[in-house]
């Protein structure tokens, strides 16, 4: 009756809380394996014994879907998130305009990889939308994932960084100095799906629980939002 | 079992080309530093793959380039005492000694081991590792290790060079016994003429990679032409004599072709045959039979040749019975005595100067193989 | 013990198992390959040498990915091994051991090869004249003389196995109790804002284990060297 | 060349620069440390030994994080170096070289130390009796005799530097043209669905470079060994 | 410059405890395998740090445990020829030879280098590496390397053991010249009595780590009590003689205390003093002056003692002038000739038996230092 969940690493704290709660409710255990969305997707392609895939990136989910690795009809957008600009705690609010580059004071803007990691892709899109990208691109330090970018700001190595609201909320050493408007970037979604090979009888129950109100409350508490409606 | 060797090999700047066939017993490989002795011995052991080679012990063919046959070293059953020890540093002395029987799965010969250990005086070293042994101690262990591997041929590359006289004197008889009591041929590299004369049945003289001479020890040693190659001081002759009696005062009486000879007692029973080595330097010549002197051995003979070079000395060859005796005297003496071929003289040899270390005992079978070559 | 959670203890135990197996299984193979590289001449020697070094040259993620493509359940080699030998690497601790072993392999081979190259062939010749066939020469002379090198190789392999992360998480994922090694657990903590303290605890455990192994190996190696050098 | 984009060529050049500097700068230090560990007895020797091995034991991300905490702009050591020597590591290629050097350090030290331990002290004694002061003995006898070990250490360090990813990206991020090494670029491609082919191209470049270095080093090492072994 | 050594050191199972002081020239360190010769030499070179030591060359104190002084090896300026070569394998022979002057930044002595290379016969090897040299070739290079490091003391641990007679005979005169023409003391480990007798001013006899005897060569060599330690075959006496004339037939005439002596020409001008070594085995005794024999040297003397052990031989000590001569004869001869202390006899010595290799030339300063010890 055990469910194995492959989930994007950035969901660790929230998902662990949810799984613990589910175990308390149902008596069933969910085994959570956290890694980058890409690594997990490749592992699923290679036949990983996962029941549920929770990605931070709809691109990888699309690819699995194309290959018929998802149980049909099980895919849905579970959560949404918001993109924010953060600075070390105490940093004054920063308008998202051409003063941004001065605010770096010669330092770097921390982001996730802008071509590869979702948070970086969204961030680059937003900056392009705001017309700031060309100027600021040489000053961007790209980390291998969004949490690493957050850490750069948290320890003060980068004066500013672009991360998810969920990350900003969890890290006391940073303050949100600006929020990116929703239209400035593609919608941020966390898709979820059951995998074709899944044999666990409780997988549907767990997915239902994830979509249910109790889990949603926990997710929202961690800063996630309802999934964006337009898809 | 005789040993037949034919080896050609080229290094940059050095060519070895030597063929010889030797009867059973000890074959001395003699030659100056760099003349190719170690190279030759390595080729026989299979450690060096020569350009062209044929090596045969008795009827065991070890290697024949023409047939494309070349046994690997471990199948040759050759005990090799290296010029530089080559003890296994990670094994104790005891384990080094037992290595041969261990790796070949042979029954260990405990009695033989005890005998060899005693003979070599390494009983106290058995539990030590080779690293902290003295130079001579290492070499003694190396000799023991080779002896205990039950070889069919023993190669010894200057095995005694690092040892003192007393230790040499202790080990030499054991090598003699090995020669006399077993059928194992020994190829023995040495710079010491005394050792060679004592041990060797046959001498192979190498010079710059070429074989200069191969023959019975007596013949090579008393060849005046080879004296420079061997070393003037070391030239001499080798006689064969039969033991006639052992006297109470510790002397042994022998009959040589040229007459009666006395020696300090030797361990050969009456009737046995021995070889006596006489340094040319140790022979004095007298025109009349000398009177009251301490030398007991006086052999009458006839001068066959006198060779003198640029130095003050002359090498006089005598015939005493059918034996050749070499005597090295000054030109002045030769002149004073009026020596010339045909002169009748007496060779005076101090009995003790035919010293223990120069006596080689031979058993009958060897005497035979010696004369047939 | 309160210091670590049960799940973390599991990760510690798993890491140890993975590292020990990786080292023990890879070692004989490493000795053999080192021997080939040091002593034999054959066609394709440089190729073998290159392949051995590959895990060092490639980013670990790539190695993990290649492992996944080779030893995954759907991959030809993986399927064949599973069918004939019943040996499954994918998403098992065995896979973690495989990844760790492969990542440490070049280190082991180099150390052993270096030791092999300094063994005096004259001693091996001496052994041969005493009647030892090649394999015996190797076992009784060469092997004892290269013991310090083997120990060095083993400890390098073990340390690498304890620290290996990229290839492991890419190949066998990060499934608690099955493939979650210490480095994976540490990584997961680092993905959580404020997870540094938890990560540090695990780092400490990892360091203590590796140091113990290190000191043990030094003692062994010193003894081996002393035996060889004399006294 | 069409095979690689200009940006990718930049990454290749940068990786080469990083690997070469990392190897060259770390090598003398590795020789010194190897010498201390092999030949000297001092208090804290085991500690030094442990520290040298740390980069092997720790997951690379942790090493990168520790580097950030030590050599970052805000970190004490980093600030001091920047102020006094003008040496800045954070977000510079120099930082990538530092990370690569540190990750390869244990491999270099081990190889050199192993070689040192097999040098016959009798030869060093002979040099001393001929009037050579210690440092000369080291330079004229010890060093030439351990050349094969030094070459092995250098090539291991170089290979590792070419492949290092985790510590590098964590420490200096990924700034195209400044800190984007080949492994970072490869990683980025692997994060995107369908990026495998591009990643493979870069892997090929990396492998070719490392193989060339490998074969070069083998030739050098063989020559050095031959010199020492005779003929 | 004299050498003063006092060393105590313990290994598990072996204790070295030796103190001696020797005058300038060559000091032979003599003793059986494992008696501690190499250990002693290592301690002097500073390669072994003994428990307790004091080493002084002339007034240069190298090491004194009491003062806590201990110079490191490279500051001692000691040339050491090791028992096992220890050539640098990564350097060519030439580079090995030049190593000493290179590392110490001294001016290289090109003439000296050429001379040493010629003397050792290693001219053809200069561009080779030591790995492929023969055993004797290695040792010759090692000797050259030590000589060219311009040492203040030379330590030689069995330097000639791996060499053939011809090569030894070539190198010995050079060592003699070194002894006679320079002020460099030499400590020489050897198992060869002939070498020792020829070279050594002083002999230090070691046994099981203890010093048994230290004294001038003549005295130690002709001490009948030490004959067993030295080896019976090698016992003999050392005489001092003055060159009186060089004759046209290649002989040199000398005046010894006991009478006139002839030798093959030696390179000492008339008036010079030389040492002659006479093997006890090479001396024959005659009651009357012998007649027409080839031996040119007949010295009258008086028997002072006769020692005979269990064997067939007897050691007869004579006084010829004020010199001691040892003669080893058989008991039978002693009885036949009726020898007893006080008997007047003639000692017959073949001139050539006082061979080239046993002649040691001494210059005046050495003769002096010899007599003052
Ligand atoms: N490091 C060591 N530890 C223990 N014993 C040692 C050590 N070095 C030498 N010995 C022992 O000390 C004794 C003297 O050794 P040393 O090498 O001085 O002898 P040696 O007189 O030079 O002999 P040889 O003529 O055989 O070279 C030997 O019994 C040897 O085994
Ligand atoms: N591997 C090699 N390459 C080139 N030359 C070599 C090699 N091995 C030996 N030689 C040369 O071959 C000659 C014969 O060497 P070998 O070792 O056989 O001499 P040896 O008669 O044993 O001398 P020694 O009495 O000095 O030990 C020497 O000149 C030596 O330098
Ligand atoms: O799958 Mo991620 O680690 O949130 O980009
Ligand atoms: Mg030789
Ligand atoms: Mg010695």
Automatic annotation (TrEMBL), chains B, E:
Residue intervals of the Mop domain: 292-358
Record's keyword annotation contains Transport: yes
Gene Ontology MF terms in the entry: ABC-type transporter activity; ATP binding; ATP hydrolysis activity; molybdate ion transmembrane transporter activity
EC number: 3.6.3.25
Swiss-Prot/TrEMBL keywords: ATP-binding, Cell inner membrane, Cell membrane, Hydrolase, Membrane, Molybdenum, Nucleotide-binding, Translocase, Transport
Entry-linked Pfam families: ABC_tran (PF00005), TOBE (PF03459)
InterPro entries for the chain: AAA+_ATPase (IPR003593), ABC_transporter-like_ATP-bd (IPR003439), ABC_transporter-like_CS (IPR017871), Mo/tungstate-bd_C_term_dom (IPR008995), ModC_ABC_ATP-bd (IPR011868), Molybdenum_import_ModC (IPR050334), Mop_domain (IPR004606), P-loop_NTPase (IPR027417)
UniProt domain ABC transporter: residue ranges: 1-233
Domain of life, per lineage: Bacteria
A GO CC term attached to the entry: membrane
Protein known as: Sulfate/thiosulfate import ATP-binding protein CysA
Taxonomic placement: Bacteria, Pseudomonadati, Pseudomonadota, Alphaproteobacteria, Rhodobacterales
Automatic annotation (TrEMBL), chains C, D:
GO cellular component, one term: plasma membrane
UniProt subcellular location: Cell inner membrane; Cell membrane
Top-rank taxon: Bacteria
Family in the record: Belongs to the binding-protein-dependent transport system permease family. CysTW subfamily.
Domain annotation ABC transmembrane type-1: ranges: 12-215
Protein name, UniProt field: Molybdenum transport system permease
Annotated TM spans: 20-38, 50-71, 91-116, 136-159, 199-221
Membrane topology type: Multi-pass membrane protein
Molecular function, one GO term: molybdate ion transmembrane transporter activity
Keywords assigned: Cell inner membrane, Cell membrane, Membrane, Molybdenum, Transmembrane, Transmembrane helix, Transport
UniProt function note: Part of the binding-protein-dependent transport system for molybdenum; probably responsible for the translocation of the substrate across the membrane.
Pfam families the record matches: BPD_transp_1
Organism per entry: Thalassovita gelatinovora
Location, primary (coarse class): membrane
Keyword Repeat: no
Coiled-coil spans in chain: none
């Amino acid at each position: 009756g055990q469910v194995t969940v492959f989930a994007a690493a950035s969901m660790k704290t929230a998902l662990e809380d949810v799984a613990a709660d589910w175990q308390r409710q149902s008596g069933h255990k969910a085994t959570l394996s956290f890694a980058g969305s890409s690594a997990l997707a490749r592992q699923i392609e290679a036949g990983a014994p996962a029941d549920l895939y929770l990605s931070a990136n709809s691109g990888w989910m699309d690819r699995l879907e194309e290959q018929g690795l998802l149980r049909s009809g099980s895919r849905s957008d579970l959560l949404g998130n918001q993109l924010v600009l953060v600075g070390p705690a105490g940093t004054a609010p920063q308008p998202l305009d051409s003063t941004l580059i001065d605010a770096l004071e010669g330092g770097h803007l921390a982001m996730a990889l802008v071509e590869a990691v979702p948070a970086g892709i969204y961030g680059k899109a937003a900056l392009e939308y705001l017309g700031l990208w060309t100027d600021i691109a040489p000053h961007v330090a790209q980390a291998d994932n969004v949490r690493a970018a957050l850490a750069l700001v948290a320890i003060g190595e980068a004066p500013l960084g672009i991360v998810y609201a969920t990350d900003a909320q969890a890290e006391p050493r940073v303050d949100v100095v600006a929020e990116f408007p929703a239209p400035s970037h593609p919608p941020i979604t966390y898709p979820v799906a059951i995998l074709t090979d899944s044999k666990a009888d409780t997988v549907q129950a767990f997915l239902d629980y994830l979509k249910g109100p109790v889990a949603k409350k926990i997710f929202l508490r961690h800063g996630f939002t309802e999934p964006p409606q337009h898809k | 079992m005789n040993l037949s060797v034919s080896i050609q090999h080229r290094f940059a700047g050095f060519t070895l080309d030597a063929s010889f066939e030797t009867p059973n017993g000890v074959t001395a490989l003699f030659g100056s530093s760099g003349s190719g002795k170690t190279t030759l011995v390595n080729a026989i052991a299979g450690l060096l793959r020569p350009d062209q080679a044929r090596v045969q012990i008795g009827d065991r063919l070890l290697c024949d380039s023409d047939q494309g046959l070349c046994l690997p070293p471990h199948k040759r059953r050759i005990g090799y005492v290296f010029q530089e020890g080559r003890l296994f540093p990670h094994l104790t002395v005891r384990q080094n000694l037992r290595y041969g029987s261990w790796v070949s799965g042979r029954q260990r010969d405990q009695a033989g081991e005890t005998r060899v250990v005693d003979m070599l005086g390494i009983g106290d070293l058995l539990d030590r590792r080779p690293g902290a042994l003295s130079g001579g101690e290492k070499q003694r262990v190396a000799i023991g290790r080779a002896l205990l591997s039950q070889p069919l041929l023993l190669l010894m590359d200057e095995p005694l060079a690092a040892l003192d006289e007393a230790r040499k004197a202790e080990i030499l008889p054991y090598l003699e016994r090995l020669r006399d009591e077993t059928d194992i041929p020994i190829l023995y590299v040495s710079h010491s003429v005394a050792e060679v004369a004592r041990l060797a049945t046959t001498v192979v003289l190498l010079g710059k990679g070429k074989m200069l001479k191969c023959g019975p020890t007596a013949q090579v040693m008393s060849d005046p032409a080879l004296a420079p190659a061997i070393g003037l001081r070391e030239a001499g002759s080798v006689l064969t004599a039969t033991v006639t009696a052992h006297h109470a005062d510790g002397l042994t009486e022998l009959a040589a072709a040229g007459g009666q000879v006395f020696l300090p007692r030797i361990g050969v029973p009456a009737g046995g045959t021995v070889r006596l080595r006489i340094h040319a330097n140790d022979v004095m010549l007298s025109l009349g039979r000398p009177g009251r002197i301490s030398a007991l051995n006086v052999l009458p003979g006839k001068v066959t040749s006198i060779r003198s070079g640029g130095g003050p000395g002359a090498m006089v060859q005598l015939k005493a019975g059918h034996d050749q005796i070499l005597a090295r005297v000054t030109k002045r003496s030769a002149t004073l005595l009026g020596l010339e071929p045909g002169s009748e003289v007496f060779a005076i040899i101090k009995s003790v100067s035919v010293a223990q270390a120069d006596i080689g005992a031979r058993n009958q079978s060897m005497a035979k193989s010696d004369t047939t070559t | 013990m309160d210091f670590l959670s049960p799940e973390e203890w599991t990760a510690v135990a798993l890491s140890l198992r993975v590292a020990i197996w990786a080292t023990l299984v890879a070692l004989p193979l490493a000795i053999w390959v080192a021997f080939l590289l040091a002593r034999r001449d054959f066609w394709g020697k440089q190729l073998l040498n290159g392949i051995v070094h590959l895990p060092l040259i490639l980013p670990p993620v790539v190695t993990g990915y290649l492992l996944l493509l080779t030893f995954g359940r759907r991959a030809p080699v993986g399927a064949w091994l599973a069918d004939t030998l019943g040996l499954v690497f994918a998403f098992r601790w065995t896979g973690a051991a495989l990844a760790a072993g492969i990542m440490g392999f070049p280190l082991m081979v180099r150390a052993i090869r270096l030791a092999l190259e300094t063994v005096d062939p004259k001693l091996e010749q001496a052994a041969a004249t005493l009647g030892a066939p090649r394999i015996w020469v190797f076992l009784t002379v060469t092997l004892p003389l290269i013991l310090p090198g083997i120990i060095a190789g083993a400890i390098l392999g073990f340390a690498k196995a304890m620290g290996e992360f990229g290839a492991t998480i890419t190949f066998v994922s990060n499934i608690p109790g099955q493939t979650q090694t210490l480095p994976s657990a540490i990584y997961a903590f680092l993905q959580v804002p404020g997870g540094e303290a938890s990560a540090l605890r695990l780092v400490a455990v990892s360091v203590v284990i590796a140091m113990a192994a290190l000191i043990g190996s030094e003692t062994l190696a010193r003894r081996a060297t002393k035996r060889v050098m004399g006294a």
